[in-house]
């Protein structure tokens, strides 16, 4: 059974994840940078640099949230970045941010289901995702749809939490994720389940070589995994 945010509810994972992000949307950016000590900003920059040689003109940012990764992708000088997300609350915050930065001519945010993307085949030069794939209801289906909308020769770049393997970081990371992070998250977001779900979803996610296996299964080639910050997160790359 997949990990869900609200164990006392009957809704499926997709609906629960949308509700969870709606609940925490106004405090999401603050919590994101606070709980990662700002390292998430560096991770996004590193991930975008991996597309520098490709110079993609049209980029799709899946599970865009409040648009941070879409904004970072502008470093590549694309003609357009389209961000999709299932949470209206997160998109509303993202649209405000993009308008304030006067970037709405370059970034378009819209409602969208990662497993049923409303785009034709072979449309995008690159597909990017930051900390979103572990929230998919059906991981394989979501990755297969990314593959479908990507142009031949295009790349997918995904950042996701992973599980450090080495002592003592593994033990320290697990303690922080299990006991400290949920308490800070609850205090600031007022949603206890959201930050209990986060470590549970990371634990259940097939990281490293297991994730590369799923990428290959749906058709991606030249797959690579680059661990970040002692394996706390990883960047995954695949080509169509």
UniProtKB/TrEMBL annotation:
InterPro entries: SAM-dependent_MTases_sf, UbiE/COQ5_MeTrFase, UbiE/COQ5_MeTrFase_CS. The keyword Ribonucleoprotein does not apply. The keyword Methyltransferase applies. GO terms for molecular function: methyltransferase activity. Pathway: Quinol/quinone metabolism; menaquinone biosynthesis; menaquinol from 1,4-dihydroxy-2-naphthoate: step 2/2. This is Demethylmenaquinone methyltransferase. Coiled coil: none annotated. One of its GO terms (biological process) is methylation. Belongs to the class I-like SAM-binding methyltransferase superfamily. MenG/UbiE family. Pfam families: Ubie_methyltran (PF01209). It comes from the Bacteria. It is an enzyme of class 2 (transferase). Keywords: Menaquinone biosynthesis, Methyltransferase, S-adenosyl-L-methionine, Transferase. It comes from Echinicola arenosa. Its EC number is 2.1.1.163. It catalyses: a 2-demethylmenaquinol + S-adenosyl-L-methionine = a menaquinol + S-adenosyl-L-homocysteine + H(+). S-adenosyl-L-methionine binds at residues 66, 85, 113-114, 130. Methyltransferase required for the conversion of demethylmenaquinol (DMKH2) to menaquinol (MKH2).
